[in-house]
Amino acid sequence: MIRLAQVIDTFEADFLAQYRDRLTSDHHRALAAMKQCRTEASPKMQVQCTECDHRKLVPHSCGHRHCPHCQHHESQQWLERQMQKQVPAEYFLLTFTLPSEFRALSWAHPRVVYDLLMRCAWETVRTFSHNDKPLQGTPGAIAVLHTNTRRLDYHPHVHLVMPAAAVDGQRKQWRTKRRSKTKGGYLFNHKALAKVFRAKLLASIEAAGLTLPDHYPMAWVVDCKSVGTGEKALIYLGRYLYRGVIAEKDILACTASQVSFRYRNGKTMKLERRTMSGAQFLWLVLQHVLPKGFRRARNFGFLHPNCKRLIALLQVLLRRAPGRAAAWVKPRAPIVCACCGAVMMIVRTRIRSGYSEGMPPPIAPEGAH
To answer: pTM for this structure?
Structure first.
């Protein structure tokens, strides 16, 4: 497998020469972290076999949220939290796309535009839910911001996973929308959603003091489709939530001048290959680095973290056991001893350079296991 750190080490000089003027401090931090991820330059952790006395030093991961090699555990924890909030209703995946004419604006003011994109998407579905006759209440939604296409091009959009259900706080009622037997799942009209979303976002951008593009389309795109119980949609969203925009297994080749990676064509669903210069590839990856502290995954309505008691009460009243993500997520692979094959445990972390494997084992910190 070709590591992203290897690609950075090979093409960093060319990349900085071509794209330095476009880079922010967030890009530089991400580049430095991913370059050292699990290399000899990174801090080490000491692991010891649970059966024999074999010990070794293992490089730490960088832990950066855009690194494709890191944060598997964080992705699994996020998915577990979402599955714990499942309610007995049909789920829908809604996608709100920012038109291409606004990409220059979002690139210049990412924190503001991304935040407005997520909030306006939520405000749109909340408005429709309150006005919808079967629902007439506040819905719940899990929103995730994506800035890339499968080809890694810049394409900001927001996904919302939303159950066809709502809570009427005044009447203390729980309402769901029944699945149509003839047409299948239906939540809201996608063209009507697009019109309201367009109006809300345009007004919000102007209210934020930003200048709208000179030209933009009248018809925007919002997609709305049924996803059953929602598990597979959440797996899809969580896959790249904390692990960058490309899996290292999809980097097919790294020569002295070019990098090739594969992606799945969304229309044909066939794997395709894309080849470009190493500097351009690094730009494709790093242009999707989010501003420091920006939360790309948010919960709204009755799925907000402050509504844990409400969700627990609903699950009891509706006799719905919380979901589990264990069946969908692969567990983290253990470190195996090269001598006897037993599992190795971590006894010390964040060891700086200068410590040798041959030295006596340090005393494990209290509580280490």
So the answer is: 0.87
